[in-house]
Amino acid sequence: MEEPMRNIIGKSYLRIFFYLAAFFTVIIIPFSYFLTNQYSKQALTEINDFISEKTDSLSQSFDYMLDNLQSYGLTMSQDPYISSWLKEDSETEDPLIAKEALSSLMNFMSLQPFISATYLVNMETGNVLDSVEGIHSLAEFKDRELINNAIRHRPAFLAFHRFEYDGRSLLALVIPSAQLKENRGYLVMVLDRSLLQKYLLQNRNNGNTEFSILDEQHSIVVGDVPSEFDHAAMNRIAEESAEQFTVKIKGNVYLIHHKKIQTENWQLYSIVKLKDVSGRVDRFQSKILLSCLILLILLFIGAFWNSKRSMGRFSVLAKQLQNLFGTRLQYANRAPFEEFTIIKSGLDYMMNNLEEMNSSRRNYQGLIKAEYLRHWILHGSISDAMRTELSYMTEIANNTDLNLAVFRLTGYSLFCEKYDYGSRKLLKYSIGNITQEIFMNGGYLCEPVDLGSDHLVLLFGCDTAKDSILGLLHEAAKQIGNWLGIQVVMAIGEQGAIRENLRTVYDRIYDLTFMNFLSGESKIYMQEDYDQLVKGHIVTLDESLIQEVIGLVKSGDRDRTHKVVERLFGQLQTLPYAECKVYLNIMLFRIVKAFSKVMDENDIKEGNQFLEKFDSLTEIKQWMLTEMDQIIDLAQAQTTGGRKNELAPEIADYVDLHLHDSMLTVEEIAEHLGYSGGYIRQIFKDTYQITLSDFILQKRVDRVKELLVTSDMPIIDIAERSGFQSRTTFFTAFKRVTQMTPSQYREQTTSTNDKEITNGQA
To answer: Which own/partner contact pairs does 381-389 have at CB distance under 8 Å and 24+ positions apart?
Structure first.
């Protein structure tokens, strides 16, 4: 028994697990009980304060209502027609005054919904003026007993009083409140108790709290009490003078708040059964305890897994050392706890993971900035509102001297084979960071922008000498190669700030990055390099044949590709040598640009030197046919594996990056990814069960819907930002998807949100 236990204790990962389990238990269990007790105390305190506030609020509301009704009754009694009618005697009785008094009475009744009936009683003439039925003789009036009871039981001062009549409990106000010698009549105002209770207690009663107002005889004036409360219980409660107390009725404990109604000698009580309140608290406490228990179990599992993963190998190593050195490690036999040194490596591992997580976090503001910059480049310009927003994130938006450079990754086909899609994005992000740091160290503003595919765009301020910018770009290319092992080809706009459409400049400079296939030089290319290459040559050959070859290769049509290549070289044979050589260079440039994603660029260097390896046009033609066949074979191989699994997500991501580009088409996506349009359509449809064209349209409409709700931008600006080419296209597409116009959608959504906010406030 001792030996197996010794072996268990000697295993570092089990020992560490037991220590961690004991530690977690000691921490979690007391903490969970402390947390539940604190929550219970805080919850009951907040409930008590909440009920107290509701009681105070209801007391003030009821005081205000009674005071208002008293004032209203006095105002009615002082009306000249009503006052005159009440003072009439049998000799001065005038039907016109009765008519005007009735009219005044009806007007007063229409303005105060809480009065169910009002009676004018002239004791001298023996008449009653009913607000509903008009004038009657008191002796013949059907509610004569109601009026007599109201007058007979009235208090000595102006106050409301409750009396019983015909099995009903009524609340009335009699004016004047005392019998005066000169008084000949009374105004009896009977209140609608149900409406009064509904108004005053609306949104105040809930499933746990009852509100009740009692008069001097401890009878209910307004409100309800729990069914367990009888008259004895009400008397017991009324004897308490404290504003807050608890009482036990029929085995249940109730929390009661008490407030006096200032206008009347009445008492307001809020009654809560503690069992109902504490039941919810207890259920939440149980959830807290259960959550802590689950957390403890998960910590046990995590501690065991981490201990075994981190410490298990160390136990094996200790055993191997013991076998290797024998008796020289006897101390280890007596004290296996020496293996605790492995804890340091475990902590180091966790700290390294934490640092990696912190370093890989992306700043949300950076994503918005990248989105605006992509919109700027792909649209060629940005609105004033967008420029203002962008200026808060980068000073480049305020720079009037702006230029553009493109970094294209060489050997992109090998790059795609070596790294998956996520790794490629991360490496391009690193290229942008390296370049940005070099420019910042040189004292210049710049912003790298990833537009997908095989290149990055760099926006920078150009209010400096040309040589300084070229030096920074050369340094960036050098450091990218040193740190990442990636070679890039750079091209830059002409010296001076960009004055034309940014999209046009971007397209032209991106084409210049393929100049290295013609010149073979390791340099930063400019427009003047291309102009110098074709200077003095007039090429009369139809370049559409090259585009036809490229299209046939992308579609995988091998036979037609061979036929068009034969036609192309048949025309080349008719050209003079110098023009034929220039055209071959241009043809090579177009082909390499079209298939840079799948061709190995290292096989082709400077165009002229490459062509000199061949002795005739026939050999060049044969090389071109072989190269086209290899590209077709490679594309067919990739359709059954490799990048096929990640191609659909890459297409979706490219759409997200270029959604605001109104020129975005399936063919453009296919060109950037190095596949035919039909192939990427099929891959996307098989993966997401939606056509690529419909996906682009749906994403654009979703962007419009989001901007319609979250911004007050004009609808035309929203359409432009979402990539729609024209107003007609935009309105047609939006209505086809949503069955309403953009204005109707914005109005309906705003109205719905307003209603939700209003309901939430209520």
So the answer is: 381/501, 381/502, 383/717, 383/720, 383/721, 385/713, 385/717, 386/721
